[in-house]
């Protein structure tokens, strides 16, 4: 199983990519520019040289095409254009959306939420990918970048997920539970992602 982290060169995406790669998962780090992804992967391999990593870098479009499971880790402002760029490669795939609707996306404060018309960031993703057969799951929204980056320490935190497809959630839970210290908690249908989004106060670092 190949996991493609779309927008994986940022703090959250790279942290997720490193954690999965350490656990033996085949990881693709995606970026808007392939060169950046390749550079970040090279630096990651050097940083984690004590681990046998199976990790490569690609442009987001190529990463989405090659990945079996996609994890979207871009800022809210980049969510729509990124998804539109990879939409054709999302058909019938599981898409984990870690997008958080904070006011920082529009220059506001990091502890205020943006009320999205769709209800939550993950529901917005589902709307954009409507008709592709993509199975969208809200995941990783409540886990901080600092915890992800604190390698090799375990992440002592639940990963709250929500989605409408039961089988897709089972696959996601099996994947997430590979990460030491993390337990995936199924919070229910995708609409419940609105509640998960409001739990992201746990991710704010002062």
Give the end-to-end Cα distance, rounded to a whole number of Å. 36 Å
Rg measurement, Å: 15 Å
- Summing up helix and strand content along with how strands pair, one would put the structural category as alpha/beta
Order of helices and strands: EHEHEHEHEHEHEHEH
Q: Give the overall pLDDT as a whole number.
A: 89
**Total of DSSP H or I helical runs spanning 4+ residues:** 8
Low-confidence stretches: 105-109, 201-206
Strand order in the largest sheet: 3-2-1-4-5-6-7-8
Quaternary structure of the protein: single chain
Specify the biggest β-sheet. Answer: 8 strands, mixed
The percentage helix is 25-40%
What is the overall silhouette? Answer: globular
Strand % is 15-25%
Number of strands: 8
Detailed description of the structure:
The chain has an 8-stranded mixed sheet with strand order 3-2-1-4-5-6-7-8. The protein has helices at 11-22, 34-47, 60-66, 76-86, 121-128, 145-149, 166-176, 193-197, and strands at residues 2-6, 26-31, 55-59, 69-72, 94-97, 135-138, 157-163, 182-186. Helix 4 runs parallel beside helix 5 (121-128). It has 206 residues and is an alpha/beta fold. Residues 105-109 and 201-206 have low confidence and may be disordered.
Can you tag this structure with a few keywords?
eight-stranded mixed β-sheet, 8 strands, 206 residues, alpha/beta, 19% strand, 8 helices
